[in-house]
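P.,

For your records, the input lines for the assembly:
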Amino acid sequence: MNAWPLLGVALVILGFARRWNPVPVVVVAGILSGLLAGFSPAHVLELLGTSFTANRVLLLYVVTLPAIGLLERAGLREHAQRWIGQLAGLTLARLLIGYLALRQLLSMLGLTNVAGQAQTVRPLLAPMAEAAARREQGIDEPVPSDARQTMDVRALAAATDNIGLFFGEDVFIALGGVLLIHSFYAQQGITLSPLHIALWALPTALAAFVLHALRVQRFARRRKVDRDGASRGSEDQHAPS
Amino acid sequence: MLHLEWCYQLLALLLAATAWLNLRSRHHARAAFWLILALLLAAGHWVLQAEHAGNPLPAQLAGAGVLALAILAPGMRRVDTEEAPLQFRQSLADRLGHRLLWPAMLIPSLTLVFALFGSAIRIAGEPLLNPPQQALIGLALASLVAMFAAWALTRAPASAVVHESRRLIDILGWAALLPLVLAALGSLFEAAGVGQLLARLVGEVIPTASYGACVLAYGLGMLVFTVIMGNAFAAFPVLTAGIGLPLLVHLHGANPAVVGSLGMLCGYCGTLLTPMAANFNIVPVALLELDSPWAVIRAQWPAALGLLAFNLLAMYLLAMH
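Structure tokens returned:
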């Protein structure tokens, strides 16, 4: 067997490790693997063009941006932040865990496109999470948006969306993962009921909820400890004078 | 009645407008990048049809287009596109209050309605939204309705629609392209036999007589393959044909439903860990303007490893019953 196409994999790993721009790295790696497998340059271009075009659905989320841009221009993020800032009972942990549960349940019903990084995280969840975190820290002033903690809260909001999506979608029987498993086995002569496959994913879906909910809570608690430590620290500084 | 194709044309129009604004502000590399992408989207249907009919030329041209995008991508440095000043945003937010949330909520809620009923509504005997893509068409339609609602609500000038979408699309930059080129990479790897090659290497080094070792090899294999390919769906057929089916199901008599389901979930844990899964881990970095490309993965890896351990243990315990 011709092992040379593996060089494409090596190039991708090298590219990501060296922080080269991933777009040319990925395209060149694909072309390299194709050529090393013995395809003609024309055939490699054809494969590249066909698979790129066949996957254009991955770009569909961009259609949400005009609406979101217009609302941001009118202060959507500022409003979401102020609103959450006033809701005393809505802590960072409750907000993110509630979103996680909702995202998992919707995905289990096959409604994966209802929420997402562009649709809900950027305009709503991330600013709300930032505001909740800020209130818990007792900060009234908007923190500069590139502050370390703001970045961490936003990343956690994005992670919550991903985890909710992945470990809900796998339980839905009529799309994606379950159907792929079903049709793969069917090709091998093993007939399974899709419901059966989906049921075995349920324990992991529950584990994902519990695990991520615990992590969100720990994240929120650690921030509180940081804040108490920091305020004590500043009191100490004031004490001598 | 409404096809997904129509949504791609809308998207192409949006990208072409972004290209035009970039050309006017003399960001030539950006303008060329978005224009080529717009053309690729607009011509997509034709490319696939010609390919299907046995004419490879349009697909080859599309491949050359992708190559051109790859060459342009490193030249797309972050530029500061002017956002409406904070004071302006605050004062509008003061005036509009909770009404601002409505168009934002329209996107998920209308998508939900379209996903559930879009293909059941029939106009002249044809479903309003062509199944099985009603949820995707619904997303585009909901975004359009939300755009008009936001426009009417905020009384923005028409030019603001284009300027605002250009601002957000430029924030995405080349990260928008990454999910597509990675999917193309997966197809090329598959065609070049990279998957089978790796599966064979794994199969040669594990002690096949040990059930535990086979579970470990299959689960970890799914993880590593997903990390490399960026997609558990690409890893699944390769690893299950190479290890899961011959070793776990046939040799050790494991339950195929458990093996398949939990094997796929091991792959999902890999998706949480890899920059190759760009639409989940890199696009949000651009969308949320995070400072490190690893920020989302850093927030996910403990959950991913915890769930991997859970999946391996569950497979080990459940598959033999």
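Two observations worth noting. The CA atoms of residues 102 and 164 of chain A lie 8 Å apart. Chain A touches chain B through 122 residues (CB under 8 Å).

Regards
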